[in-house]
Task: inverse folding
């Protein structure tokens, strides 16, 4: 049977579609719709059956969030993995999302530091300096200085992400390393999710009791036992409810209502 292969034209389409990554950003799965839109040419190239295309799209509609400029690198790797999956019945399809989850956090840290913390500041400094002196080239210089590395990282990231993905997958399949890779990326993915819980979810309690004239601050006690205990407990609760197939929309509304009520009575 002829091997199914991603073409250069497909990768070009992914490149241009990657600019729409945040076009449908949402607070449930963040950049997932943009990621699925970018991967659509790859899916159509590799899978001829509607059922296979639907399953692939469903994979890429899982939660995803990273610095937009570095996203094509992950898309290139995803394209290589989808190609391997389309040509091998023994390929572990769960590894596709596991690799995405393990990469999006570390690359977001690098991408944010480079683009928002370095290139943008340097480009804006030079552009504003020129514009403040009446030079009409100020805004153009800003756009040029920021977008030159931006476009290069997108273009080269997609190209080398795909090539490295293909070469690595061939070696992994040949040497039987997929189980090891899956364990590693699963651990990294869980670490990323755990760090997001601790850094983005802020749940504290102002409860204070007096015992023999001394104040007992509940939050300080909880932090001494385990920092960020309340956010962690909240995430575990939501995870358990989702496992019981309770609607995410209902959970979101219930969380909002409970949060408002607890804030009003002064518990949160």
Result:
């Amino acid at each position: 049977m002829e091997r199914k292969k991603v073409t250069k034209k497909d990768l070009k389409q992914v490149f241009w579609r990657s600019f729409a990554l945040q076009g449908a950003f949402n607070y449930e799965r963040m950049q997932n719709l943009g990621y699925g839109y970018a991967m659509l040419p790859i899916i159509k190239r590799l899978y001829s059956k509607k059922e296979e295309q639907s399953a692939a799209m469903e994979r890429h509609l899982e939660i995803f969030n990273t610095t937009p400029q570095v996203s094509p690198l992950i898309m290139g790797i995803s394209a290589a993995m989808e190609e391997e999956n389309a040509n091998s019945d023994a390929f572990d399809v769960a590894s596709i999302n596991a690799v995405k989850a393990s990469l999006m956090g570390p690359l977001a840290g690098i991408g944010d530091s480079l683009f928002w913390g370095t290139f943008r500041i340097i480009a804006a400094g030079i552009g504003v300096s020129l514009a403040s002196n009446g030079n009409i080239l100020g805004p153009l210089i800003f756009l040029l200085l920021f977008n030159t590395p931006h476009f290069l990282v997108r273009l080269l990231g997609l190209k080398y992400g795909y090539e490295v993905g293909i070469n690595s997958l061939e070696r992994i399949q040949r040497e039987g390393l997929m189980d090891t890779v899956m364990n590693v990326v699963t651990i990294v993915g869980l670490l990323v999710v755990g760090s997001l819980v601790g850094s983005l979810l802020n749940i504290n309690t102002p409860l204070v009791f007096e015992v023999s004239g001394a104040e007992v601050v509940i939050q300080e006690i909880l932090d001494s036992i385990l920092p960020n205990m309340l956010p962690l407990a909240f995430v575990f609760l939501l995870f358990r409810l989702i496992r019981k197939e309770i609607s995410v929309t209902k959970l979101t509304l219930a969380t909002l209502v409970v949060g408002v009520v607890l804030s009003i009575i002064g518990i949160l």
User: Anything to note?
Assistant: The mean pLDDT is 83. The longest helix spans residues 94-132. Strands lie at 208-211, 214-217. The first strand starts at residue 208 and ends at 211.
